[in-house]
Amino acid sequence: MTSSFLDKIREVSKQFFAFPMEEKQKYSREADSIEGYGNDMILSDHQTVDWTDRLYLTISPEDQRKIKFWPENPKDFRETLHEYTVKLQETNDFLLRAVARSLNLEESCFLDQYGEQPLVTARFNFYPPCPRPDRILGVKPHADASAVTFLLQDKEVEGLQFLKDNEWFRVPIIPHALLVNVGDQVEIMSNGIFKSPVHRVVTNTQRERNTLAVFCIPESDNEIKPADQLISETRPSLYKKVKDYVSIYFQYYQQGKRPIEAVKI
Ligand SMILES: O=C(O)CCC(=O)C(=O)O
Ligand SMILES: [Fe+2]
């Protein structure tokens, strides 16, 4: 992907969030559904709400797209998103084959667990300036439910941080790079060799921030599990077999718990 193409995606997402509220609200999500434009979903009385506007869209399988939520403006939004995610799916496949090879496994052993019809979703994140960054997060600490996440960061404004050894580390801006994040499902499939890291987004008082996360997720009917070759007497299976991990995930996430704990043995 060329850097001008990455800039183009940033541009269309910025343009969308810059429209007046009436325009964006044409794509508003329904109260109990994640898909569409809106704020953080409220799933629990105990949750903290993230300081963010989002546009959440299903990309693949194509027959599951809800096109009524895909912005008509800017004019090239739909086409650009489609083109971007086609490329990302190729990147996802390439990457998972390489990861398998790096562990001396059959090349397709992770990809096979995606099933015939993997799910690809996109989350456009818009973080407005926030009066109380000392108390309010753009996204609360979480690890991703996906197998793999591709994040296109803002070119000018930082905000993402990863947790390691109880300390938060900031992610620098590399304008022409995508950040690839291992999600919980690769942690499970790799029997914990690849860890799904906890991350959060901090806010700032001065500048808005735009990012786009694309999540690659195994088909929900497909069972995922640690690859057989990664289980041995010395390294037993650390995770249960699981279907539709994303549903389990959401129940835990909004209560501030780590969903992967639910599938650990
Ligand atoms: O906006 C970011 O930098 C990260 C967003 C994120 O973690 C997510 O959408 O899962
Ligand atoms: Fe995330």
What is this structure's SSE topology?
Layout lengths: L2 H16 L2 H5 L10 E4 L13 E8 L16 H26 L16 E9 L9 E6 L5 E5 L7 E5 L2 E4 L8 E4 L1 H6 L9 E4 L6 E9 L27 H9 L12
Antiparallel strand pairs: 1-2, 2-3, 3-10, 4-9, 5-8, 5-10, 6-7, 6-9
Helix pairs in contact: 1-3
Pfam families: 2OG-FeII_Oxy, DIOX_N
Family: Belongs to the iron/ascorbate-dependent oxidoreductase family.
Protein name: Fe2OG dioxygenase domain-containing protein
Overview of the molecule:
The protein is of the alpha+beta class and 265 residues long. It has a single domain (3-263), classed as Sandwich (Jelly Rolls). It has helices spanning 3-18, 21-25, 77-102, 184-189, 245-253; strands spanning 36-39, 53-60, 119-127, 137-142, 148-152, 160-164, 167-170, 179-182, 199-202, 209-217. The strands form two sheets. A six-stranded antiparallel sheet has the order 1-2-3-10-5-8. A four-stranded antiparallel sheet has the order 4-9-6-7, with no helix packed on it. A hairpin with a 2-residue loop joins strand 6 (160-164) and strand 7. 37% of the residues are buried. The structure holds 2-oxoglutaric acid and fe (ii) ion. Residues 142, 144, 199 line the site of fe (ii) ion.
Quickly describe the structure.
With 265 residues, the chain is α+β, with helices and mostly antiparallel strands. The chain has helices at residues 3-18, 21-25, 77-102, 184-189, 245-253; strands at 36-39, 53-60, 119-127, 137-142, 148-152, 160-164, 167-170, 179-182, 199-202, 209-217.
List keywords for this structure.
265 residues, alpha+beta, Jelly Rolls, six-stranded antiparallel sheet, four-stranded antiparallel sheet, 5 helices, 10 strands, 23% helix, 22% strand, binds 2-oxoglutaric acid, binds fe (ii) ion
